[in-house]
Write a structure and sequence with these properties.
With about 200 residues, the protein is an alpha+beta fold. A 5-stranded antiparallel sheet has the order 5-6-7-4-8, with helices on one face. The longest helix has 17 residues. The C terminus is likely disordered.
Length: about 200
C-alpha cells in the first residue's frame, strides 16, 4: 500500500474513510454512488434557557441537546461534496429556529457566545452501508456509507469486517450491503475462506 509516508506492506486493508471512500473504491474498480450529506450544528455557550432533556422540534426539523459545553442545536443537511466551503448560514438558521422554541434565548451575538461545526456524512442512495470485499481484490474490505448512523452501525460493522478478514461466515447476510449492488456486479461469496486468513 502506498501512503504519503512511503510504502507499507499489509496482508489486507479496510477502506473505512467515510465520505472520502468513493475515490478509493473507484481505484479498486467499484463505482459506488457515495455522496456527502454535510451536516451542521451550533452550540450556544451559557444559554439563558435550555431544555432539561434532548428535544426534537418536528416542525422545524431540528434537535436541541443540553450538554456540558452548552446547548447544541443540529438538524440541517446539504449535498455539496467535499470541496465546497461551509455555508454557515445553515448553522445560523438553527439559532433562529431554537429561538422560536425557546424565546428566552438572547440574541446570537458575537462568536465568543457560540461555536459552529460542519461535518461530512457518507451516504448512498439506498441508505445502506457498503460492506464487503473490493471487486478486484479479496484482500480489501469496504466498511463505509453509514450516513447518519455511523456510530450506531460501527459495532456490527466491525464484527462483520473481522469475520470477513478472518475467513469466517458472517454473523448476518451481508448481500444487501454488497459494493457491487449499484453496478450489477455479481456479489462475492462471503464466509468462505479469505486467501489471507
Amino acid at each position: 500500500m502506498e501512503t504519503t509516508n512511503g510504502s507499507i506492506v499489509v496482508d489486507a486493508a479496510v477502506v473505512a474513510t467515510g465520505a472520502h471512500s468513493r475515490s478509493l473504491a473507484a481505484s479498486l474498480g467499484d463505482h459506488v454512488p457515495l455522496d456527502t450529506e454535510r451536516g451542521y450544528h451550533i452550540v450556544i455557550k451559557h444559554p439563558e434557557v435550555t431544555p432539561r432533556i434532548p428535544t426534537t422540534d418536528a416542525t422545524g426539523k431540528f434537535i436541541a441537546t443540553p450538554m456540558e459545553m452548552g446547548l447544541r442545536v443540529a438538524g440541517t443537511v446539504e449535498f455539496a461534496g467535499l470541496a465546497a466551503a461551509p455555508n454557515w448560514k445553515r448553522a445560523h438558521i438553527l439559532y433562529t429556529q431554537i429561538q422560536s422554541l425557546l424565546p428566552g434565548l438572547g440574541p446570537l451575538g458575537s462568536e465568543d457566545r457560540y461555536t459552529k461545526w460542519m461535518g461530512f456524512r457518507p451516504s448512498v442512495p439506498d441508505s445502506l452501508p457498503v460492506i464487503g470485499f473490493a471487486h478486484r481484490t479479496p484482500d480489501v474490505v469496504y466498511a463505509f456509507g453509514h450516513g447518519h448512523l455511523g456510530m450506531t452501525g460501527a459495532p456490527m460493522t466491525a464484527t462483520i469486517v473481522s469475520e470477513l478478514l478472518s475467513g469466517k461466515k458472517t454473523s448476518i447476510d451481508i448481500t444487501p450491503f454488497a459494493p457491487g449492488r449499484f453496478s450489477g456486479s455479481e456479489a462475492h461469496s462471503y464466509g468462505v475462506t479469505a486467501p489471507f486468513a
